[in-house]
Amino acid sequence: MPWVNITPGVAVTMKFMETRPVVRYLHWVDRRSVACEGEGCSFCASGSVRKERYGIEVWINGAQATWEFSPTVYTQLVTILGANVSWTDVEVKVTRIGVGLDTKYVVEHLGEAGSQPASTPAAAPVGTPSIEEAVHAAMLSEEYITAVAGAVSELLLAKLLEWQVVVIPEGE
Ligand SMILES: [Zn+2]
């Protein structure tokens, strides 16, 4: 399966095709990732730190692909979607902010495919921007420059929280 690669600043909608993400443990050896062998793993024994990664099959742009993400993103997705629910057919809108170690994701829960979204646009306060508008505004502002220089600025974070957008740091 191809990997999901989200262009920064572009919102993508994806639908989960599995009940839960699968966790994998990887070592970085000879400039590539190799699977941890678990009990008695030779890489673990040699002192290599294993990295936790999550992956789930998604339906995106009319095709199936694998979205891989960090434990931090997983924790935030659980917060958004609920602890003990199936993710199958759940739709989310994901916007990536920044690149490399500064990568963060803004995730909006669109509800289950075919069902009513949790909140309708009519219930939103007047003047509430869409995710695209919020991210676009953030990218044009001084706050965004602060955000890409390091952590998301408190002002941007406060605004995103106010609009019930969850900012997910990619780093661990
Ligand atoms: Zn290992």
Descriptive tags:
binds zinc ion, 33% strand, single chain, alpha+beta, 172 residues
What would you note in describing this structure?
By secondary structure, the chain is α+β, with helices and mostly antiparallel strands. The chain has a domain at 11-17 and 58-169. It is built from five helices and eight strands. The protein has helices spanning 42-45, 71-81, 131-140, 142-149, 154-162; strands at residues 11-16, 22-29, 32-35, 51-60, 63-69, 90-97, 104-112, 166-169. Strands 1, 2, 3, 4, 5, 6, 7 and 8 form an eight-stranded antiparallel beta sheet that branches. The two termini are 25 Å apart. Bound molecules: zinc ion. Zinc ion binds at residues 27, 36-37, 41, 43-44, 50. Zinc ion binds next to helix 1.
- Structural class by helix and strand composition: alpha+beta
Radius of gyration: 18 Å
Percent strand equals: 25-35%
H/I helix tally: 5
How is the secondary structure organized here?
Blueprint: E1 11-16, E2 22-29, E3 32-35, H1 42-45, E4 51-60, E5 63-69, H2 71-81, E6 90-97, E7 104-112, H3 131-140, H4 142-149, H5 154-162, E8 166-169
Antiparallel strand pairs: 1-4, 1-6, 2-3, 2-4, 4-5, 6-7, 7-8
This protein binds zinc ion.
Structure described in brief:
The chain has 172 residues and is of the alpha+beta class. The protein is built from five helices and eight strands, in the order βββαββαββαααβ. Strands 1, 2, 3, 4, 5, 6, 7 and 8 form an eight-stranded antiparallel β-sheet that branches.
